[in-house]
Amino acid sequence: MRILVVEDDLEAQRYLVNGLKEAGHVVDDAADGDTGLTLALSRPYDCAIIDRMLPKLDGLNVVAEMREHGNTMPVLFLSALSEVDDRVKGLKAGGDDYLTKPYAFVELLARIDALMRRRAPAAVKTKLAVGELELDLLTRTATREGQAIDLQPREFRLLEYLMRHAGQVVTRTMLLESVWEYHFDPQTNVIDVHISRLRAKIDKGFSAQLLHTVRGAGYMIRAAK
Amino acid sequence: MLRNSAFLHWAQRVLHTQAFRITLVFVFFYAVTATALVAFTWWNSQRALDAQTDQTIEAEVAGLRDTYLRLGVIGLSDVINGRVAQHGSGIYYLESPSRAVLAGNLLGIPETAKSVGGFFEFEYQRAQQSETVTRTARGEGFTLPGGYILLVARDVTDQKYSRKKFFTTIPWTIGLMLLLGIAGGVLLSRNILRRLDTITRTSSEIVAGDFSRRVPITPAGDEFDTLAENLNVMLERTERLMKGMREVVDSVAHDLRTPLNRLRNRLEDMQRKLSPEDPHLDDIDSAIAETDRLIGTFNALLLIAEADSGMTRGSMSAVDLSAIVADIADLYAPLAEEKEIVLEVAPSGVLTIEGNRSLVSQALANLIDNAIKYTPSGGHIWVAATETPAGIDLCVADNGPGIPVQDRTRVLERFVRLEKSRNSPGTGLGLSLVAAVARMHEAKLTLGDNAPGLKATISFPRTFVKKGNRE
């Protein structure tokens, strides 16, 4: 995938670019808003990672200009500013996701993967399936190998989010943000408890494990090989 | 109906102003003083008038007595008849010892005249244009040597009439004075109220977070404008301070986040480069974990600063507390269950406040998190949002060990952790953040005794409660 990185802190930029390249992406970089905007408008990218505060042209303005030119590529904002209403400003300006520095690289990677996946035009699905596990979005029911699984509404949403991102790492904050719509960091790992309950329902008693813990990153649901 | 009640409300406000009360007191004292002054002047002038009449009569009486002594009864009768014929205001009456009328223009002597010496008032009848009218006179009667009784008086009916007329006008005058005074008071109060209302409106807008507002200054240049100017100078300074605070928070955030970011990047980079079997991997993992704790503390501190600086005021919107309670309880339910703690949520209707959803949720999460952390296995936690006369209470109670009374204020300070919890995970900022979120919503955080256990309550004031809540 082709990714554009616009970041003025050169050291942070270097780590970011190296990390993304190691993850198999093709990366272009820019250190100021003007260059970033020119690159964004002249070349096709799958995703852009843009710092909120940039010399010459502010990150918010870069994205606003991009959107004005009809450019719809997914954008993830990085910000070293204080958070509370900054996130709202970022998303209002046309950003798709928002990450506060310092961030964990795996978190960033998981988020841009999710952003790029979201971009692929998916037909309106009424059923999700991972291996033998099926989720009917209309009847709100789950089955595995034909056996009905009883899920609470929140567990259903959690599983739905995981299955929509099947094969991708999903971090705890991503789950908290999308399933509970909260943007704070709970002091205790409440998400882990929810996952282990869900795992008990969908994996217990079956030969293959579908819901995996990715060390130091989060969770992933994928079909057994 | 609505108009009527709006008017009543307005009238009530006007009547309750200081200006109106002052006017009322002033009008009252003015009326009393003016009445007293007028009454005194009138009484004095009446006395002077009476004295003048009396003097005239006395002089006349002296003259008549002289006439009597020189010319006898016949001479006196002649003089009296001569004066009567002049049709003046004089009233005369001369009676012989045998009660026969000798001269004068009275038909008989009033009963009072015989017994009393000195001046007195009496009524008498007089023919006036073919009818008889009763009039009032003031005079002196006395007995002449030889047993003759002489009465000399003056008609005072007109004087009496004007006196009476004056008396009837006094209540009307006072009434009018009070009426005008009250009307003036209302006008004055309304004006003052209008001026003060603009100041109140501006200041409440500022309290709500719009620091760019200023009190309008009128061209009148009066004392209110001086007050407004002073307020505006103060506001200018406050705005500058808040802006400065914001800039400090922002630049601290930026200047600390950037190196922290690099630090974490570097550690992650090392972690990636090492092979999974490398013995140093554990060290790097714990270094990353330590960095994350540092970041957590830093973020919490920054959030407290933001909440306290009013920076988050712009991010307020209508949020339903009962929905937040349900969501956060749902988030923490499995955690409580795992520790065999019952997490009980009291059901409530929609309870909307003006607030920051994320921060209020985080505050509630911190309270529930604490409760789960400190309540032993088998315990009970109660979460409730309830409407009270003063506003809405958000309450988390447990039956754990609680917090000793003497420590309850201390735990709200930053980084304070009680001795026994020093080794459990946490930044020591959880309750400080709850307190800051409460302050930001002008709410009060109270830590009370649940006997046994802790009962933490955030009391949102009525001003932050949205109208239209229903049970």
UniProtKB/TrEMBL annotation, chain A:
SUPFAM superfamilies registered for this protein in UniProt: CheY-like (SSF52172)
Segments forming domain Response regulatory: 2-116
Presence of the UniProt keyword Ribonucleoprotein in the record: no
4-aspartylphosphate: residues carrying this PTM: 51
Keywords: DNA-binding, Phosphoprotein
SMART domains: REC (SM00448), Trans_reg_C (SM00862)
UniProt KW Phosphoprotein keyword: yes
InterPro entries noted in UniProt: CheY-like_superfamily, OmpR/PhoB-type_DNA-bd, Sig_transdc_resp-reg_receiver, WalR-like, WH-like_DNA-bd_sf
Residue ranges for the DNA-binding region feature of this UniProt entry: 125-223
Residues of the OmpR/PhoB-type domain: 125-223
Gene3D superfamilies, per the entry: 3.40.50.2300, 6.10.250.690, Winged helix-like DNA-binding domain superfamily/Winged helix DNA-binding domain
UniProt name for this protein: Response regulator transcription factor
Organism encoding this protein: Rhizomicrobium electricum
Lineage: Bacteria, Pseudomonadati, Pseudomonadota, Alphaproteobacteria, Micropepsales
From TrEMBL, chain B:
Transmembrane segments: 20-43, 169-188
A Pfam family reported for this protein in Swiss-Prot or TrEMBL: HAMP
Reaction catalysis annotation: ATP + protein L-histidine = ADP + protein N-phospho-L-histidine
Enzyme class name: transferase
Domain HAMP: 190-243
Enzyme Commission code(s) on record: 2.7.13.3
SMART domains: HAMP (SM00304), HATPase_c (SM00387), HisKA (SM00388)
Domain Histidine kinase, first and last residues per copy: 251-464
Superkingdom, natural source: Bacteria
Compartments where located: Membrane
Record key words, sorted: ATP-binding, Kinase, Membrane, Nucleotide-binding, Phosphoprotein, Transferase, Transmembrane, Transmembrane helix, Two-component regulatory system
InterPro entries the UniProt entry points to: HAMP_dom, HATPase_C_sf, HATPase_dom, His_kinase_dom, HisK_dim/P_dom, HisK_dim/P_sf, Sig_transdc_His_kin-like_C, TCS_sensor_his_kinase
GO molecular function: ATP binding
Primary location recorded for the protein, binned into one broad class: membrane
Stated name of the protein: histidine kinase
Lineage: Bacteria, Pseudomonadati, Pseudomonadota, Alphaproteobacteria, Micropepsales
